[in-house]
Amino acid sequence: MTGQGKRRIFARIGADAPQCAPARLALAMALAASFPQAALAHGPATAASSTAPYALWDGAREAAVASLLAKAAQSPTALRLFLRPMPKGGDLHNHLSGAIWAEEYIDWARAAHFCSTPDGQSLAPPPCAPGHSLDTTAGDDTAASDRLIDSLSTRGWQQGIGRDRISGHTQFFQTFARFGAIAQGHTGPMLAALKRQAVLDQLSYLEIDHNTDVLSSYALQASTAPMTQADIPALFAADRPGVEALLDQGAAELTQSEAEAQKLLACASGQAEPACAITTHYLFQALRALPPRQVFRSLLTGFAMAARDPRYVGINIVMPEDAPIALADYDLHMAMIRFLATQYPNVRRSLHAGELAFGSVPPRDLADHIAKAVDAGAQRIGHGVDIAYETTAAATMARMARQGIAVEINLSSNDVILGVKGADHPVNLYRRHGVPIALSTDDQGVLRIDLTHEYTRAVREQGFTYADLKQAARASLEYAFLPGASLWQGRHLGQPVAPCAASLSGKACAHLLSTSEKARLQADLETRLARFERDTIAMATPKSTAKA
Predict the structure, then answer these.
(1) How confident is the model at residue 539 (pLDDT cuts 50, 70, 90)?
(2) Do 315 and 271 sit in the same domain of this protein?
(3) Are 316 and 411 contained in the same domain?
């Protein structure tokens, strides 16, 4: 991640020396005396609020907060309490169906008179077998309800249930089929639920992996016949008219889902929920563990939709990277993406690559997936866990650093699915090589986490300081596929462009903020971070000191 000169040095004061905690707290108390003590809510802010009577960028204040974080890091509960109100920018790796908690799916299924399957592990539409209607079982039988929740998530597996029978990888991926029947048709409630969680995590932006049903269904209607790279141009010519004919239907479906979410959140009323203020865009997901012609059609659909509808800001390719067909066709998939990028040059690409671990596949399959994704034009990499096992790892990371190709880091996901955590995780390897990173959740409902949890893991397992977390939050917006120019100079996070260097409220900066969605969200994040730092110091200051 990009350094911050003096601000980074300030943030290191005491961060590597826990025995200096009393001195750091004294520093925080002394600094606090220089700030107004009015309490500030950690809710959504606007760029206009940058006229607050305190500096947005203050290295001494950041150092004081870094010292308080170092103290809080000694206790998991204190750290959680510290990080929950911290503004975190965006979540760039967030699959909509996997973001929903099992309990919400069960509630929706009960309202739709759904059933549990005879094995008690999945949700299914009526008619129900005797004793399996959710109207009568899920609310009354605690044991059955617990089994269903464990089946629809990794909760039980993480607590040791079934670990002798299946891997975290298997438990994770099999959940999607188990709740899929109720997820279909509930996009509006899912969006509302995800936005509500984003408010709790102090997020301002979500970049959501989501496909509309009509477009996904069409992709799955493609032939299962084999193909080669030589077939790509002809297949494009054959499939494009059918895809283009459905784009308006896909857009209308998304519009309807968003309207339903807005209604659930009361966005048009005087009692609008804070979740209404969360900015959202979407990535269209191609499905890699399918026959190649279906993969191509899903990629083509994603590129075409992102070129047509500004709510879609890019494409992705998902499903288990270690699935036999995904491994066998990896080069073919990259060739598809390269070709489609020539047809839709303005469509951005975030590619799942390197979601593999040593021992999970033969060494040959660890050698080059991330490098090939970068060659295919990836502008972000999802996961990137196996980078240390790639043949040209150093050169690939140098290229990623040079070109600003960020990695979406999913600490809990990589632990559960791949068994990679702690010092074995490459997040700090990337950072040492100058590759930008952003912390994200992947599938927070299935994993039973939130983004605050990922921030706590980054501190406790990876040694992140407050300055590191602050840069990760900034990176989540800098490397988002948001339209518009950046607030930062040349991707030097924390160094504003000239019009905004002195103030976010001046006329020159106002022009940038009025024309760039990205810059507006970045300015909002800076305002909220400054408020968070000021309030954190004030709360850590004894009242007697504050009155002095």
Answers:
(1) very high
(2) yes
(3) yes
Cα(335)–Cα(108) distance, integer angstroms:
41
Per-residue HEC secondary structure of 282-329 comes to EEEEEECCCCHHHHHHHHHHHHHHHHHCCCEEEEEEECCCCCHHHHHC
Quote the percentage of the chain above a pLDDT of 90: 84
The pLDDT tens digits of the residues spanning 279-291 come to 999 999 999 999 9
**Is residue 12 situated within a structural domain?**
yes
Q: State the first-to-last Cα distance of the chain, in angstroms, to the nearest integer.
A: 39
Of the three residues 478, 507, 523, the one that is the final residue of a domain is 478
| Residue 29 neighbours by CB under 8 Å, 6+ apart | 540, 541, 542, 545
CATH of the domain at 309: 3.20.20.140
Structural domain harbouring 60: 6-87+481-547
Residue 537 in domain: yes
CA distance 141 to 134: 10
Parallel, antiparallel or unpaired: strands 312-318 and 348-353: parallel
Average pLDDT over residues 12-27: 33
pTM: 0.89
408 and 278 fall within a common domain: yes
222 has pLDDT over 70? yes
